[in-house]
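Below is how a single chain appears once it has passed through the pipeline. First comes the sequence as given, then the structure the pipeline wrote out for it. We keep one example in the README because the format questions we get most often are answered faster by looking than by reading.
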Amino acid sequence: SKLKSGQSYVVGAKSCFNSTQNGAETVRSFSFDTTRPTVSINEIVFPNSSLISKLSGTAAGTFQDMSDVASVQISIIDRTSIIGTRYWSGTSWEFGENVVYLGANYLPQTGEWTYNMVGGALSKDGRYIIRAKSIDSAGNQSIVADNVTNIGPLGVILNDISSLYDGRISSDHT
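Resulting structure:
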């Protein structure tokens, strides 16, 4: 018969040398899981400062079980520079189109994850692509969550507005 995802199973094994010398039986249980975990990114909120260095979100495993999530990873891309695209390497901004996934801090008790950009930050005048994915203990990977954040010159967050050039609002006085 076929194994069903989300079910627990027990397997036993015993070694046999001959009909009179049998080894001890070993029994193990396991859960069969082919269901993708989930992940989300919280809305970015700027405090009174001009920079933000902490990102957060939530993740859940099979059947919304937070303890099933083994890790959460994020990538941060900066599309603000006129020189070229930059990505956050974990310690600094680097030029290039690389998508580098970095480990976030995950709390299975609450299902929340956070990432602190030590030595870097998102500025109030930029365009960023933040991606997050979660991986459960069976190795299943979530669908990647994307957050395109356009931040205007006054720190106003203009999420998911792709028609704005470089995240800046312009007015037409014609």
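The CA atoms of residues 61 and 95 lie 34 Å apart.

See the next section for the split statistics.
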